[in-house]
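=== RUN LOG ===
request id: a7f3
mode: sequence -> structure
chains: 1
length: 443
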Amino acid sequence: MLSKAKKFRLSSFQLIMLSFASVIILGALLLMQPFSTQERIRTPFIQALFTATSSVCVTGLVVKDTATYWSTFGHIVIIALIQIGGFGVMTVMAGIAMLSGQKISLAQRSRLQDTISAPQLGGIVRLTTFIIKYTLIIELIGACFMAPTFVRDFGIKGLWYALFHSISAFCNAGFDLLGVREQFSSLTTYVDSVPINVTIMLLIVIGGLGFVTWDDIRTHKTRLSRYRMQSKVILLTTALLILLPALYFFLVEFHQMPLSRRILVSFFQSITPRTAGFNTVDLTGLTQSSQALTSILMLIGGSPGSTAGGMKTSTLAVLLLTAMSVFRQDRTTHAFGRRLSSDTIRTAFTIMVMYVNLFLFSGFFLSLYDKIPLETALFETASAIGTVGLSLGITASLSIPSLFVLIFLMFFGRVGGLTIIFATLRSVQKDGALLPLDDIAVG
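=== RESULT ===
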C-alpha cells in the first residue's frame, strides 16, 4: 500500500501545473457570473476562460474590453488573478501558510524553489518572505506615483486606477482600465505623460528582473563583483535588450513626433514587449520590420523566477555565449570567469526549440483557420507564448479553436515548457553506461 501511495504522489512540477490550472478554472467560473459584467449578463465559458488564463498567466490579451465589459467585481477578480499569477500560486500558498503560523515543510520548500527558480533550497523561506514584502511595497509605490495623474483625470476613482495599473505593470500583465477611447487604446492617451510612462516602464523592468536578482541587489547593492553569475548575465542582457531596440525604434519609427515624445515612445516600445503588453502607440502603424522585432522581443520575454514569461533573457544569453564559444573555438561556454555546464546549454537549446516551434506552428494554424495574414497571426502567437498581451487587433475576432490555441500558449508560456513536460511525461531513469561515440557533420 505504501508503494502505491508513493507511486501516485504528485511531483513538484505536477503540483505547479495543476495549481495554475485550478486558479484559472476558479477565475473563469467567477467571471462567467452575471455580476462580473457591467450589463449583468452571463459570459460564455470560452471568453471567461480566455480572460482568466490571460490574467493568471499575466498576458493581457483580451476578447472583451476590460474597462467597459467587466464590472467592478470583475475587475477585482482579474487583478487578484494577475497578482496570484505574478507571485506564482505556490508562493501565494506559502505566504498564506506563513501568515497563519504554519511551518513550511521540506516538500513545500522544494516546490517554492522550482516556482521562483532559486539556485538552492537553503534560505528559500526567507527569500519568499522578501519577495512578497517587496512586491507589495513596489506596487504601492508605483500606485502613488501614478495616482496624481489618474485622480486628475478620473477623480477619486483614479486611486483604484493607479493601484490596478501598478499591479498589472509590475506583474507584466498589461491589463488596463482606460477603455477603447482610441483604437487599441491601452495607454495611448498618456503617450506624453512622463509620470505614467516612466513608472510603468520601471515597474515592468523591476518585475521582469527575477526574484533572485532582486536578492543580489538587496544584499550586495552596487558591489557587482559579488553578484551571482546569473544576476550579472540577466542585468547585462536586460540592459542590451532595452537600449538596442530603443535605438532602433528611435531611428526607424516615430519621425513625425517631437523629440521628447519620440524618446519616451522608443523606450516604452522597447520595454513593453518583455512582457507587459501596454502600448502608447497604434501598433498597426509600425513598419513590418518593427512588428517583427517586437515579436522577437516578445518571444525572449523577461528573466527566470520573475513575473514575466517568454524564453527568458538567460536562455538567450546562454545561446549567444555558446555561439561565441564556437566562433572562438573554445572548448567551453563561459561568462564572467565562470564555466557553464553542458546541462544548462542543452536546456537553453531545448527551450528555444520548443518556443520557436510552438510560435511558428500556432501562427500557421491561426493564419490558415481564420484566414488572416501570417505576419499578423505570428504576432498574436508570439504575444501569447511570451505572455505579453500586445495585439494587432484580431484577438476578439478569432474562432474558438484559435482561442484555445492561444489559451494553451499562454499557459505554456507562464508555467514553463519544461515544467509542463516534466509534469506530464514519466521520468525514465537509465544506468550510467554510455553508448558508443559517433559524430555527424553540421553547418
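=== NOTES ===
The mean pLDDT is 87.
Residues 9-424 form one domain.
=== END ===
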